[in-house]
Amino acid sequence: MGSWFSKKSRDPPDSFDSLMETGWCDIPWSRDTLEKPKETLRALQPKHPDVEHLRILVIGPVGAGKSSFIHSIDSIFQNKIMNASYRVATDQRSFTNTFTTYTFQDESGNRLPFVIGDVMGLENEDDSGANTEDIVNALKGHIKENYTFNSVKACSVNDPGYNSNPTLNDKVHCLVFVIPIDNFANHAKERATVLMHDNLIRKMQHIRRKARDLRIRQVIILTKVDLDCHHVTEGIRNVYRSKNIHQKAEACSKALGIPKSDIFLVCNYHNDKQLNSDKDEVLLFTLTQILNYANEFVEDRRKSMDTDITFAGRGKNSDPR
């Protein structure tokens, strides 16, 4: 005699490890080489006369892959795996303890039109890791290069590491949250849960709201995706088709309030001995979207400046009667 339970047990279990028919993000894979996307980024020009380079700030939990992302971008443009041992956290405490801005060159020594700022990693406790107000100050351009972070005391006006008069070139043009995808887990059909500590989420939400108030575009990079799905381990081109990863991206979007369209997936270089063209393509695609957002931000500032000049001119030449 059959029962509901016996019938249910004969059904195949739901699989989070399958591929969707179409991906939720379309990467224009190169057929030959990566020179075209690399050349596009080399030729990128900031859309504001006062901006020398587009400034990205990467933040996230300790061990998320911030430094590995920076190292990966460096390796792509140098066309070889660069030594990253001094950039990568090796334990649960932040390896980065000073505000550091990385510049980039291509293999010919030409400087690239963007920089990436790295800060101390976020931690669960309030008295450890990056102070959220220091990150807000960095967004505004108030943190000087090589400032040493203090988890319990934010940089203030009287601190020698405080920049009282930041220019647009000092301010952050795009904020990037870097989060490892293993901070999310699938436990139910069509749904993933968040494994991050509530206090860590609150810290990131606070920073996100401050960035929003400053009209700074924000994106999320989910790292370590190749360790999360065997389809992606076998081929990075499957990354946006993985049902497992897709559900975790949706959980991340809901937790931080950032649209899924602004969530990107990368597989950083870590223990690799040589470059991989597909991995490079995903990284370059992500970097291109980030820099486009950064350029939108500085262009908006230019338009505001032009408007102010126009109104000022009208006021000066207006009839006093």
UniProtKB/TrEMBL annotation:
InterPro entries (alphabetical): P-loop_NTPase
GO biological process: immune response
Domain of life: Eukaryota
The name this protein goes by in its record: G domain-containing protein
Species classification: Eukaryota, Metazoa, Chordata, Craniata, Vertebrata
